[in-house]
Amino acid sequence: xxxxxxxxxxxxxxxxxxxxxxxxxxxxxxxxxxxxxxxxxxxxxxxxxxxxxxxxxxxxxxxxxxxxxxxxxxxxxxxxxxxxxxxxxxxxxxxxxxxxxxxxxxxxxxxxxxxxxxxxxxxxxxxxxxxxxxxxxxxxxxxxxxxxxxxxxxxxxxxxxxxxxxxxxxxxxxxxxxxxxxxxxxxxxxxxxxxxxxxxxxxxxxxxxxxxxxxxxxxxxxxxxxxxxxxxxxxxxxxxxxxxxxxxxxxxxxxxxxxxxxxxxxxxxxxxxxxxxxxxxxxxxxxxxxxxxxxxxxxxxxxxxxxxxxxxxxxxxxxxxxxxxxxxxxxxxxxxxxxxxxxxxxxxxxxxxxxxxxxxxxxxxxxxxxxxxxxxxxxxxxxxxxxxxxxxxxxxxxxxxxxxxxxxxxxxxxxxxxxxxxxxxxxxxxxxxxxxxxxxxxxxxx
Length: 446
Hints:
This protein is of the alpha/beta class. Helices cover 48% and strands 15% of the residues. The chain has helices spanning 3-15, 20-38, 41-45, 48-52, 101-118, 138-152, 171-185, 209-224, 241-252, 275-284, 289-294, 327-335, 351-359, 367-370, 373-386, 393-417, 424-443; strands spanning 57-66, 72-83, 89-95, 124-129, 161-165, 233-236, 256-257, 259-262, 265-268, 300-303, 315-317, 340-342, 363-365.
């Protein structure tokens, strides 16, 4: 890293000494965009990098709520509003015990450039809580969401900050959050949240968007090699919304999804994942992947294991959480003949894992490009809300495919322009960063 950029990074380390996930995301972006930064004196004079890595606003708050035994519980809530230079802050809410300020900041930082790549006029932000909805009753989840929104409502709005769902925040949680916002604001501001129910402002295709968008991005990566998905074997981690709809679209195109996972272990199903059973277990029963394995004769449950060493395959699609793929996992993937990895989760690969993939010729699709379909379709939901319309599913998915194709093309062309042909990580980081940096220059020092 250039000494001038290293000084800015070291200052960030000093300011944020206990935020490893955030610093990992920052370093990756700085190293990728170094040719752009060093080649533009205006960026240096305006301190673009120093400004981009410092959030515009960081909000932390107490969330006190009562469980079903009338015991008062206390969690911590977050909303980091990172960059509004391209439009209102936009990014999901994550409810999971692993949530910390560092996690929310890394997610928000990545969101800036992911949103820029969609070209939808949205800024970057992220939020959430260390609340765990797993094992809670609907009433407990409702009371928590209402308490969370009591504070969050002060900081959001259709033209200010538009949250959506993420891990632990699905349609149920969005419904409770929206209902409480409406009560507090005393108005029906449909555009304040995305991921809403179809009957009250939601968009068709939103549930499928991240998974479908991921597969469209993989289609584009394969097309570069003169290949398609038909007959390809996939190792997929996770078993939530992203994994489910990744499997749905991939299998519709003739691929075979061999694995799913959760925090307790993995399932290997050589017959291919039974999508109907998976949806029943996860979406209806809110169960675990072990429940799937118990009811599927062909499936093997691998206690405490990851999916990456389960079987020979062509493609790996991490769709669970950050840093789930390390160097040992890449070695396992190489052993099993995997030649392409695209990220459905946010920052699921460690820096060492990415380096090892690139060294060994594995085609790598970074999260900020490959999983941008979810936020892109959230922006389409915002457009529908603003126009008081609801589009057909075919129209939404057609627009989604066009956005994902444009993102891939932009990444490929930008990587080649800056001497990193074929490196989609460099292409994504530079393309997203440049769009944000140019807007910052035009809007002045604010």
